[in-house]
Batch of 2 targets.
Target 1
Amino acid sequence: MAANRLQTIAQHLAVAPAGGPTVRAVPTSGGLSSVPTSQEFRYTVDGGALSHEQRKFYEENGFIVIRNLISDDKLDVYRQHFEAICRGEVTVPGLTIMKDISLVKSKAKLPKDSTSVTKIQSFQDDPVLMGYCADPEILQYVESFSGPNISVAHTMLINKPPDPGSKSSRHPLHQDMYYFPWRPTDRVVCAWTAMEHVDRSNGCLVVLPGSHREGTIKEHGYPQWEGGVNYLYHGILDFDEKTPRVHLEMEKGDTVFFHPILIHGSGMNRTKGFRKAISGHYFQTDSTVIDVTGTVQEKAIRETIQMLLKQRRLGKDHPFNKMSLKDMAVMTTKGRRRVVKGEPLPLQY
Ligand SMILES: O=C(O)CCC(=O)C(=O)O
């Protein structure tokens, strides 16, 4: 059965498949979908660019790869701009710049260029990189998941470094929804575009097809990896190692759209090059921000907010620290989300 499914997926991808504490259950369906859904489809809606067949594939598997969606020219502009940000020639308000844990631990003086940077995050105020998030080629597909009124947040350019021997270039298996207080879950989608050829040698994405249908956000935490784990790279704790995985080999410009409950991660980069990808998380503009206090998500949201406060050098006594988790989540969502298509509807909370 599982073998048949993997074969169907492989045909679609045209590549070979490779082989505690008590917490309150977290609602993933709360928040009203302002987009009508049909009996046949739950995870996609009418109106976007996905064909009937493509919708069926996504419903079943929780991801879909669209080949050759973004041109080389556009990706080269994003790459050059990223390099300029890393060299300090461009300053982007609100941007988080992350370094691999092995570099952080080494305490060595690092070159001021992209070789020291693993990821930049939250580029919502960078007009060049936001060209990707607002690209009509991307948005025509996002409409099939989020409906006509679309916002983006949690934007990233990932620069997976050659593994320094610590295996810290891996990204543990996780669910993106663990980090998001937005509902409804099924109107959230990630777009992830390869900025060069990606395969297992440079740490392509790996997904567990169909895992989105389980519907729950699992407990996450830092894996016990000898060589250390990057900041905020939480992984699923109770994971069955035997679950079939699919490695998404992609060419430059290919884009995968995936559901936020889909279990995914990425392997070690065994090459000498930096593996680049650009991505954004899209959701229905009038999404609801929920209170995650006491749920499996609390740890992630608290850590994310702490990182943002630290980055803005707002000390422990700053009034923000006294806000409720829910108010913080609303504030940070408002600060990072940008409406990219349709009506600028208010966030619900
Ligand atoms: O690009 C990667 O290596 C993994 C990205 C990812 O899963 C994430 O940042 O949530």
Target 2
Amino acid sequence: MADDHPLGNRVGDMRSILTEDPQTWDILWKQKVTPWDSGEIQPPLRQVVESGEIPFTKGGRALVPGCGRGYDTIYLASALGHDTIGLDASATAVEAANQLAQSSSLDLDLVSKIHFEVADFFKYEVPEDRKFDLIYDYTFFVAIPPSKRSLWGSQINSLIKPGGYLITLMFPHVPVHDPQPYAAGPPFYSNFTSYEEVLRVGGSEWEVVLNKIPDDDTLLDVHKGKDRIVVWKRTA
Ligand SMILES: C[S@@+](CC[C@H](N)C(=O)[O-])C[C@H]1O[C@@H](n2cnc3c(N)ncnc32)[C@H](O)[C@@H]1O
């Protein structure tokens, strides 16, 4: 199953190492089993920010759970001027992200806006006045066990400000009735419904302000036909 996966047979290696314990991700990072790491900013994120089609606030606070090496964390701090926190349960990932930031010749003002922290997203708390204007999820939702998806939804709701935006870059996006959704990864799968059913909880309301399949010619090869970007605005 993993042999014909777009990310190659290292997805099989991932599945044999990961358990429900987020610390098992650190083993992957230490063994350099990181097939999801594309080495660059995700083109659909760049496109949605730079098109100006959504009036994202600037100079606020952003969160990137499961940030990995942090390409997109650095990009959001740079493009929107947000104080941006990249969270990862793996200390090795955070070390790699800090190294990337240090080696990227960023100006000091930008460096002061980028913060990488080792933390379990499910235990992460911020006071009321530190809630986020923007949360960006790319391959974090599909990294957690599906049994934790409703907890992901309640955490997003507890961390984002009313009026804040959530960008979900879904990869791999599979059809709702795909007979073999687990053939996708890393290591799980997603579709629009799987986010929607866990976000609208506890009376919170979300408006879908963008829902699109990026043009294949803008995507990295392994993403063609497998990405969907949805931007949600928390309205209440
Ligand atoms: C599939 S990788 C994606 C990394 C990054 N978003 C990227 O695309 O390059 C998932 C990341 O989530 C992190 N992770 C897994 N469970 C976590 C948790 N409970 N809290 C924070 N990070 C977690 C892993 O260490 C890993 O770096």
